[in-house]
Design brief:
This protein is α+β, with helices and mostly antiparallel strands. A hairpin with an 8-residue loop joins strand 1 and strand 2. It has a single domain, classed as Gamma-B Crystallin, domain 1. The longest helix has 21 residues. It is about 15% helix and about 35% strand.
Length: about 130
C-alpha cells in the first residue's frame, strides 16, 4: 500500500514539474522589469472582494490593456518601480471612456455603479 502511494506521489510530482516547465516564466526572459503593481477589487473602497494583484512589466507600458477579469469596482495602485510612469484607468475596455489618473499608493473608487475596464501605464522615455 505504501509502495503504491509512493509511486502515485512521484508520478504526480513528475507531471506537475513537466507542466510547470512548459509554461513561460517571466524570469526566463532578460530585461523584464515590474514597473507597477495594482490590486483589483470587486467592491468600492479597495477593501472588499479582493481579486488579486496585477503586475505591469516594462514590455506592457504605453499601451491599453483591459482587465480581463470580473467586474472591477476599485483599483489600488500599490507601487511603482519607475518614477517616470503614471497610471490611467478607464471605465471601458478600450481606454476611451472617462480617464482617471491614479497616484501611487492611492485607491481609485466610485459608487456602487462605477466600474473600471482598462488601464494604461504611461511612461516617459527618460
Amino acid at each position: 500500500m505504501y509502495f503504491t502511494r509512493a509511486i502515485a506521489s512521484i508520478a504526480a510530482l513528475a507531471v506537475g514539474t513537466a507542466s510547470a516547465a512548459a509554461l513561460p516564466q517571466i524570469t526566463d526572459y532578460p530585461g523584464h522589469i515590474r514597473y507597477a503593481q495594482l490590486r483589483l477589487y470587486g467592491e468600492p473602497g479597495c477593501f472588499d472582494a479582493n481579486l488579486g494583484e496585477l503586475g505591469i512589466y516594462n514590455l506592457a507600458v504605453n499601451e491599453c490593456h483591459d482587465f480581463l477579469t470580473d467586474i472591477i469596482k476599485s483599483v489600488r495602485y500599490e507601487f511603482q518601480n519607475n518614477p517616470n510612469c503614471r497610471l490611467r484607468v478607464y471605465n471601458d475596455a478600450e481606454c476611451q471612456s472617462t480617464p482617471y489618473d491614479v497616484a501611487a499608493k492611492e485607491c481609485l473608487t466610485g459608487d456602487d455603479d462605477e466600474q473600471y475596464g482598462s488601464y494604461e501605464l504611461l511612461c516617459d522615455e527618460s
